[in-house]
Prior knowledge:
Layout: E1 44-51, E2 62-68, E3 71-77, H1 81-86, E4 90-95
Amino acid sequence: MRRSAHPCGTPNGAPRDDMDIELNKLTKVQPGASGCTGLDPNEVVEAILKVRIPGYVPQGVDVRARIDATMFTGTFPARVLQQIEADSNVISVALSKRLRIIG
């Protein structure tokens, strides 16, 4: 891993070892999965999405950054998560984990 002063790194710039994502293991969120319950329907959530068709963006999703033609990060209201999950053009959705505030 490379060293970075990015906010996702550690205070001394060392890479975080708890941020690795194996993209080939992303799957659709299962109903009742951790982090998917108790969300306010109007809460905006962040996720990594993988789709079948290059350039396709599910309805309700705002693209933040493209990883490649079929994978991107995006935000959307929690109320559309089930709609996105039911979309046959969506291969996987990985919701961002909430981090507790240290203070």
